[in-house]
Specification:
This protein is of the alpha+beta class. Helices cover 45% and strands 14% of the residues. 35% of the residues are buried.
Length: 479
């Protein structure tokens, strides 16, 4: 039923008990939730009660004086007697006229109600609002995680999915509902990341296909020419919603997930990465590693690991940045974090990397010349700084890159899962990447994974098991 207003004629009919049961139920719900409607119902019922009491108190019996007048008129009818009787006729005509008017009013109300179309399947506006709020929550929980960062040396940080973007994606939902749900979940993310990710896992299990279809398919980050932009702000946090969605489709529904639900950074960071790292800054450890790309020998893969072993949240006061050397690197690309564009300088967001957590980020590097694979040169540097005026550190990135067999299990795991995500997304930057490549990468990483690291082994096994769901067999890719 459409939202009921106090002046709606159905309110009067409901108060008089003249509506069918299914319409009365809807009016009852509207009255319980809307004080104005309840007041209108109470006033109508009070007026009806006054009319009823008036009828009850009105005496329609003939008094003794009237009876005597009738007897006298019967014995000796005369104009005097008849006039006396006629003068009192208004005593019973007035109630009759009131009753007739009330009957006409009720008939008019019923006629109006018959002209108003009522759908028995419509739900109350409260339920509509609850459904709208659930849609917004799903979009926030299943969307990319907010990136805590700030601009560095005039360069803008990565953006987050903001309330304005949600309003654009959900134009049919009132803006105040979108903002309330977004800000509520943003506060949960900031105050209790573990509780937020619990909500994420629940949303991934319960999301229906129509809800998933609302998630936009964001474009992969392109290669950036080093001569035009040598610096890149490194994300310090990732979500896990995409991993749980992909796992649900592969394990429970025996099919590949929708492309728009695959976010590579969230697949990679389902795994926890522990490493002593190359540097330590107040309990925040930074590690960098480069390897020759196993499926495209002309590329270098660089892994950047940030692990928070301090007792505080690594958030907006932390800067992590890669700066490549244009002399040796022609272009570079951030893997994952699709759709991140340039944001205004000074942009900040909430959230962060909780104590005991890690974030692994991959870059594809395109050398300026093939000789770099055999030279010892500093091709990039990764800088970490904590606090507005805090001290920082810089880790140089040198060549030659390692061969795949000599790479750490952290890098092998991140590359295996990241390349799998590129294939699931049908990324245009996969190059010659095939199903067989991914199988070999995942099996290599599985072989080197510790027996006790169950989360890592489960993620890599999911990669291997999902290859059976691709329509093209691995052998077909090599033909």
């Amino acid at each position: 039923m459409n939202r009921i207003q106090p002046e709606d004629p159905r309110v009067t009919a409901y108060a008089l008990g003249e509506l069918p049961e299914h319409e009365s139920a809807a009016l009852r719900l509207a009255a319980e939730s809307n004080p104005a409607v309840q007041n209108a119902v109470d006033e109508t019922r009070a007026l009806a009660e006054l009319i009823r009491l008036g009828f009850d108190n009105e005496s329609l019996e003939l008094g003794e004086s009237r009876r005597e007048a009738i007897r006298r008129a019967g014995r000796s009818p005369g104009p005097g007697n008849l006039v006396a009787f006629h003068s009192r006729r208004r005593d019973w005509v007035r109630p009759l006229m009131v009753t007739a008017a009330a009957a006409v009013l009720v008939a008019c109300v019923l006629w109006v109600l018959q002209q108003v179309p009522v759908d028995e399947n419509e739900i109350t506006w409260e339920n509509v609002e609850a459904e709208q709020r659930e849609v917004v929550r799903m979009q926030v929980l299943l969307g990319p995680s907010p990136q805590p960062a700030r601009s560095i040396a005039g360069h803008a940080p990565l953006p987050q999915v903001a309330g304005g973007v949600l309003r654009d994606n959900l134009p049919e939902i009132p803006a105040e509902i979108v903002d309330e749900e977004y800000l509520g979940l943003q506060e949960l993310w900031r105050s209790d990341p573990e509780a937020f990710f619990t909500e994420v896992r629940s949303a991934a299990r319960e999301a229906k296909i129509p809800e998933l279809s609302r998630i936009p398919l964001l474009p992969d980050n392109p290669f950036v020419l080093a001569k035009e932009e040598a610096r890149s702000s490194v994300p310090i946090v990732s979500g896990t919603a995409s991993y749980h969605l992909v796992e649900r489709f592969v394990r429970n529904e025996n099919q590949l997930p929708p492309r728009n639900s695959v976010r590579i950074e969230e697949l990679i960071n389902q795994v926890s990465y522990a490493d002593e790292g190359d540097a330590d800054l107040d309990g925040v450890k930074l590690g960098v590693e480069v390897v020759r790309c196993p499926w495209d020998r002309d590329l270098i893969l660089m892994g950047v690991l940030l692990r928070n072993e301090s007792q505080r949240l690594v958030a907006r006061d932390t800067d992590l940045q890669v700066e490549v050397n244009p002399e040796y690197i022609r272009s570079y690309r951030l893997v994952g974090y699709a759709g991140n564009g340039v944001m205004p300088e000074g942009y900040t967001s909430s959230g962060g990397l909780a104590p005991g957590h890690s974030n692994y980020v991959l870059y594809q590097l395109q050398p300026a010349a093939s000789e770099i694979f055999n030279l010892q040169e500093v091709i990039a540097q990764v800088g970490l700084r904590i606090g507005e005026t805090g001290h920082g550190l810089v880790v140089p990135v040198t060549t030659p890159p390692r061969d795949w067999d000599l790479a750490s299990n952290n890098l092998q795991t991140a590359v295996a899962i990241g390349s799998w995500g590129m294939l699931l997304r049908q990324s245009p930057f996969g190059g010659t990447l095939t199903h067989q490549h991914i199988r070999e990468l995942a099996e290599d990483a599985l072989e080197g994974a510790g027996r006790s690291d169950l989360k890592r082994r489960e993620a890599l096994q999911l990669v291997v098991d999902s290859l059976l769901l691709f329509e093209i067999e691995p052998e077909a890719d090599e033909r």
